[in-house]
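Notes to self after the call with IL:
- keep both proteins in one doc
- input above output, always
- annotate only the second one for now

Protein 1:
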Amino acid sequence: MSHSTADLCDKYSQHPHFQIAEPAFKHFGKNQQFCGQISTLKVFEDNVLIREMLEEKVENRVLVVDGGGSHRCALLGDDLATLACNNGWQGVIIYGCIRDSKAINQLDIGIRALDTHPLKSHKRGIGEKDALITFAGINFKKNHYLYADEDGIIVSETLLS
């Protein structure tokens, strides 16, 4: 990422398709800075579709998961985070919890989540791929661009430079 989110805000915050996330997320993984085009999932306490998405080989993509803000189980652990790293994902944003944070913090990926929880999720395969999802004051759409660093998360309809 060539510019910080603060610099991008200074330059583009008046742009009509520029959004800034509310500061609700904790940082995990080695990469504090990451960016890429968005893929979306909407699930609730079920991570089967997350695994399916992270099994895809990608370039410069970020998976954004609306987990309903649940604090009752984790949607991502070290196995799925490793899968994401191996398949080219730049980062994962989870509106929910993760587990195995110590192991995840050793991986070359950026993860944002609300918190940690030791319990794994259900395995039903229920959810929605590529849907418009909304949380933290942002509408996340497939193929929009996400930029994250130590200061926050921003989303733009177009690539920013």
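Protein 2 (the one to annotate):
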Amino acid sequence: MDSFGRILLVEDDPKDVELTLTALDEYNLANEVVVATDGEQALDYLYYRGKFMRRAPENPAVLLLDLKLPKVDGLEILQQIKVDEKLKMIPVVVLTSSHEEKDMVASYKLGVNAYVVKPVDFHEFVNAIKQLGIFWAVINEAPPGSARKG
């Protein structure tokens, strides 16, 4: 019964990865999460490179993307996927601690679907992630060619 799409979580902070997975797990969405801990890994996943060479062929249903990442930053990832015919339909939610207006403006200009500033409070963070997970993996109609099966 695979009705949820896969989530690609791009996050370098182990605590935030754990919190996000915990929140998604409450709705049984965590078993479909691929975690990339830097921008290069995220691009490797999206382009079937390195350790992701033989991954399942469909795109993630949603990409949860931190902006401040080692190797390749979130805005660069966004720039690359939004000009790629095979990837530009993937919904992207920026999940960041950045309150900088320039980051938000740049993200929306590049076509991000949502911009969420990570709350510092654990329960707020967990609730925000739950809502995102439910919306993007369950409620939202995924674009054609993604993993979602109606």
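Annotation: The first helix runs from residue 14 to 25. The first strand starts at residue 7 and ends at 10.
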